[in-house]
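Consortium newsletter contribution from the modelling node. Members have asked for a concrete example of what our holo predictions look like. Here is one, prepared for the flavin-adenine dinucleotide complex that several groups have been discussing at recent meetings.
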Amino acid sequence: MQLDSKLPSGPIELAWDKTRFEMKLVNPANKRKHNLIVVGSGLAGASAAASLGELGYNVQCFCFQDSPRRAHSIAAQGGINAAKNYQNDGDSIYRLFYDTVKGGDFRAREANVYRLAQISVNIIDQCVAQGVPFAREYGGLLSNRSFGGAQVSRTFYARGQTGQQLLLGAYQALERQVHAGKVKMFPRTEMLDLVVIDGRARGIVARDLVTGKIQSYAADAVLLATGGYGNVFYLSTNAKGSNATAIWRAYKRGAAFGNPCFTQIHPTCIPVSGDYQSKLTLMSESLRNDGRIWVPKKAGDKRPPNQIPEAERDYYLERRYPSFGNLVPRDVASRNAKAVCDEGRGVGETGLGVYLDFGEAISRLGKHTIAERYGNLFEMYNRITGEDPYQVPMRIYPAIHYTMGGLWVDYNLMTTVPGLFALGEANFSDHGANRLGASALMQGLSDGYFVIPYTIGNYIASNKIEKLDTSHPAFGQVESEVQSRIKKLLEVKGQRTVASFHRDLGKIMWELCGMARNAAGLEEAIGKIICLRDEFQHGVKVTGSGEELNQQLENAGRVSDFLELGELMCRDALHRNESCGGHFREEYQTPDGEALRDDEHFSYVAAWEYAGPDKLPVLNKEPLEFNYVHPSQRSYK
Ligand SMILES: Cc1cc2nc3c(=O)[nH]c(=O)nc-3n(C[C@H](O)[C@H](O)[C@H](O)COP(=O)(O)OP(=O)(O)OC[C@H]3O[C@@H](n4cnc5c(N)ncnc54)[C@H](O)[C@@H]3O)c2cc1C
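And here is the predicted structure:
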């Protein structure tokens, strides 16, 4: 497989302008002759579908929920970054670029990240024009707060509901195009396979989730904006429905998978409370602006927090990282939380928790100000735990939150299958080995509103794309493969539920390929996953039929894909003999427990290629070059 990242040459500040100028354009009158498929209507998909419809293309947009408004993006709480420098506190496009490359532990492409930082300023204007109610200062200016890994305040927010408000903006833009007849929306329709004809992506096969009907859709290009795969860990902060099926099936049709082991653990989630649990809840990183993280100094100290005097508390992030304090990046905060819990200093019944304490902020700023900033998050915490965070510190623990890995894409967001593009969390993205907070919304909207409208035109104008429809035999062939996979799942008639397999997989992934990994553990995980997959194939119980609404069947397909993806993640983690960002290999750490990269051998994107059933995947490498931000040991001290 040839990986051509199509990185632009010349000074990085001019690269995107130059690329756009050199791109071929599609004449306005010709755009309406082209059909595009967008799978996903979260922030990345909705913004792309709306923008492409506005440009004049005919768009078919798919989602598995009953409405685009229910995409996982709606859950995003804390905010979206942009280098507006409204605070006049030293921010700039270059600083956002620098922070993101460094935050990603030097495993992202410089040119992509620079473009992202440039576009960040346009996103805010676009969203304000749509009426997104960002928080404002008393005088009317947009307000900002800080997120981890930055020493400036550049995060725009709408209380703790930023994703919801941004999604409503994108949804309105999308619905406008639906009304105009330029976008046709297919809710409750799940893409189950990709159709590749003469080496190009030409359509999808999808299942109507209400009737069970399997149907093909043809287009001149296919865009996947299907979100992340954090639910491979079973317990995560992701929406329960988030899954990897679309990108996994595309991988099996030839799209390389980039850095699958790069997953993000978020430090501030409500701790797991028992085996019955099926979902974890995020407490936004924005809380670290005012909340102080601590554990007792003494191991095994079980006193309630208000009985532990100041002198006996360890504000370990402030102590270890005086420059960034509680606002160190997520990977660093998570690892430190695990370390103090491993020392027996964790709090709560399970000992897997640390305090996030607002006592000092409330006495400094008053309860009213804290309620204005984080009111809905406090209420959510209170409802879930029964504890009032205005009175007692929150208890938090790291949890799976985001996947930096995803389909490999070039600078134009095209995968290794010509005509197949990936956007938002579904691609391997601009975040390297660790994403900074408030950067996912920025990337999804950058991809959808500002990058793909140019690059899709260039693809269409530069290639002769034959006209075809779903009568092409390739569609029938893929449809019958989809049908037979469904039939197989229904015919197993085993004894165990889909959820029980999923839970077991999640346990293997969290324990052996989670916050800390090592070679022996990863080998063990691969063996266990292969066994579990085999058990699934012979022991899963899926009731009902394929010709009706059948959520067990939907889940069975998704878990079956997770059982394959989990193995690839472990193989990727095993081959990367270094620690970087969220990928922490216990064998590779500095004397004080920080991630130890090996730039000489691993400064590349790992792009895995499917080699066929029962064959090991092939590793392709895209070398990374750093001409602006020179790789160094990340320091937040
Ligand atoms: C609790 C939480 C809080 C967060 N807070 C923030 C934050 O404050 N700031 C920030 O920057 N990031 C945040 N993130 C991350 C961010 O929300 C996500 O990365 C981002 O919203 C992903 O957007 P997306 O459009 O790529 O995918 P999604 O929003 O996940 O959308 C995926 C879409 O694809 C569709 N889809 C998927 N598979 C198929 C299929 N096979 N067939 C048909 N349709 C399919 C779905 O129906 C959906 O429409 C948060 C994440 C979580 C979990």
